[in-house]
Every structure is written in C-alpha cells, then in structure tokens.
Design goal:
By secondary structure, the protein is of the alpha/beta class. It has a single domain, classed as Ribonuclease H-like superfamily/Ribonuclease H (Nucleotidyltransferase, domain 5, 2-Layer Sandwich), CATH 3.30.420. The chain contains 8 helices and 5 strands; from the N terminus they run αββαβααββαααα.
Length: about 210
Amino acid sequence: MDQNLYKFERKLWDNGYKNVAGTDEAGRGPLFGPVVCASVILPHDFVLEGLNDSKKLSEKKREEYYPIIMEKALAVGISIVSPEEIDEINIYEASRQGMLRAINDMKLKPDYVITDAMPLDGFINIPHESIIKGDAKSITIAAASVIAKVTRDRLMYEEDKKHPEYEFKNHKGYPTKKHLELLNKYGIIDGYRKTYGPVKKVIEKNK
C-alpha cells in the first residue's frame, strides 16, 4: 500500500480532525449524461491494497473496490447533476454543486473536507483544502473517485440498454471518434449536454 496516499489524512488526524471527507467527481468531459460526485469518510485504519485514482484503475478493479469502500467507509455521499443543470450553470459550477451535495448527503458531518482541485471557499463553513491531482495523492479522495466513477459508469450502461445504437457502454459519453460518428448519424437525444461544442454543431447542422 502506498503510504504517501495517507499523508494528508494523517496530518489532519494528528491535528485533531477525526472525520476527514474526500470528495471527487466523474464525468466532466463527456458530451452525454450527468456528472456524478461522491464524498467519503474513511476509518483511520482503512487499508485497500492498490487503491488509487480511479482513472489509473481498470474497470474490473474499480468494480472490485466499490463494495469494499461502501462497506468499510464511515460515510458515503453521492450526488448526480443532470445534463440540463450542467447546461444551465456550466460544468465547473455543476461539479462544485455536486460535491457540496455529496458532502451534505453523508450521514456523518465531516470536520474537514479535502477535494480534488475544487476550491470551496465561500461555499462551506467546514475547514477545507483543494489538492491538485488529489485523487492520486489522497486515499480518501481516491476512494471518492472510485465511487463516483463506478456510479456514473453504471448509469451509462443503463442508457446503453435504452439507446444501444449510441454505444454508450463503450465510450461512456466521452467524445471519442466513434461516439462523434454516431452522434452525427443519429442526432441529439435527451441526455446530451447542449452547450458542449460537438453537440452544438449537430444541433446547428440539423436546424
């Protein structure tokens, strides 16, 4: 286990902060679907060999870790921000609002919050810190990144069943070459982020 992943938490625990929440999101880049945010408080003796930033893990590993984190965490909060809200307030604000909702969704109130590169100044009255690349530096943020990513991927599998022609199970809504081809072929359906460039192009083309 990479002990460096515990350095932020250990420092905070040593300073008397008991319930440290890590928060992260999945799905800022896709053209389709929501952004999903998660917040996690882990026990001080939590160990999960190999846990890291969800982007560095295989889907199989994420699915393996998900139930362990859900079972062992002291608290987990999840929020789902719709494409409509993303279009209304922009993806950055949607991610911030989602993180705040995920924090508020937990059964335990944290006494410190660490985020993956998302400043929360003026938004919460809990001590907090934004850590660049936090999902690769903090065990708690890494755990939140896995919860957020697995939750979002599962939603995309559901969308794939409803709209198999878009192949959401393969690209998860991200703007891959194949996805852009399918988007141009079949057009816009509910769930697309209409303020995103490639989607706007298709809307304009079909006017």
